[in-house]
From TrEMBL:
One of its GO terms (biological process) is response to other organism. It is found in: Nucleus. Residues 9-61, 62-112 form the Myb-like domain. Residues 9-61, 62-116 form the HTH myb-type domain. Residues 132-159, 205-237 are annotated as: Disordered. It holds the Pfam family Myb_DNA-binding. The lineage of its organism: Eukaryota, Viridiplantae, Streptophyta, Embryophyta, Tracheophyta. Its main location: nucleus. This is Uncharacterized protein. GO terms for molecular function: transcription cis-regulatory region binding. The keyword Nuclease does not apply. It comes from Aquilegia coerulea. Keywords: DNA-binding, Nucleus, Repeat, Transcription, Transcription regulation. PANTHER family: F14D16.11-RELATED. The keyword Zinc-finger does not apply.
Amino acid sequence: MGRQPCCEKIGLKRGPWTIEEDHKLMSFIINNGIHCWRMIPKHAGLLRCGKSCRLRWINYLRPDLKRGTLSEFEENQIIQLHARLGNRWSKIAAHFPGRTDNEIKNHWNTRIKKRLKLLGLDPLTHMPLQQSVQDATESEQTSHSNEDKEPQIKPLSNPALESYAVGEKMQEKFEVGSDDTINLFNSYEMLWDSFNLESAVQSSETTTSNSSSTSTSLSITDSFNPSMGESSSLQEDSHCIPSVDSLLSWDGFNPFDDFFPLQNYL
DNA sequence: AACGGTAACAACCGCAAGTAT
DNA sequence: AATACTTGCGGTTGTTACCGT
C-alpha cells in the first residue's frame, strides 16, 4: 500500500518563495497558530506542500530568528559541539537560540570545514589529517580486529584531551597564513583547554530541550493566540525573543512590519 | 562587458521517529 | 500490536551573487 505522500504534488509550486507567499504564510500562522502543517497551505491559500511551509517558517520566517553571520565565538562552539555530537545539526542548533540547523549546517559545509582543513584537521574526526591517514593505514596493516578497520568517523570520545596537544605541532607544520586562521586555531586550542564541554552540553541539553525550533515557534505563535493554550507560554521562552535590532535587521524585507505590533512584545 | 568558477544560502527529498487510532 | 499519518532531521541539489580573468 505504501504511505500517502505528505501532500498532493501535482500543481504545487516549488522553488524560491515570493514575498506574497511569505506574507500569506506569516499571516496565517500568526492568526491561527500551527496545528497541522499539512493543512496550512490549503487554508493559507498557498500552492505549497506542508513540508515546504514548515521549512520556510523554521528557516526564514520565525520571529525569533537571529539573522547575520555567525560570530567567531559561535563558530568555535559549533566546532566543539560537532566534535562531540557529529552531524546532528538540530542538536547543535539547539545550543544557539535563533539559529537554525540548516544555517549551521550550511555554515559548517561552506566555511568551517575549509578552515579546519587549512589547519590540517579532519572535519569529520577533528583529528589531524595526517594522523588520521596514518591511523587508518596502521590499523589496516595490523588488522587486529574488525573494530580497527572502522573508518575514523566517530566523534572523539574525549576531544578536549585528545586533539589539542598537537596544537603547537600543527601550527609549526602547516604554516597557516591568514590571521583569521591563526586566530581560529588559537581560540580552538584555548577553548578546549578552558571549556568544560561535558557540563556545558548537559546543562544546555536540559535547558534547551524546551526551546527547540518547533516549540519555540509554537510558544511564540501561542503568544498571539492565547486561546490555543497548546503549550508553554511566552514568559517561559521569552529569552528566545530577539532584540529589536535582530528583528529589524532583515535586509529589504521585514515580514513583521505588516503583522507584528512589535512594541507590544519587546 | 562577458564569461567561468566559486561561495553562500535556500529549498527539496527521502527516511526515521513519534504519535494517534 | 499494527497501521496510518505527521513531523523532524540530515544529506543533497539548485539558485544567486560575487569575484577574478
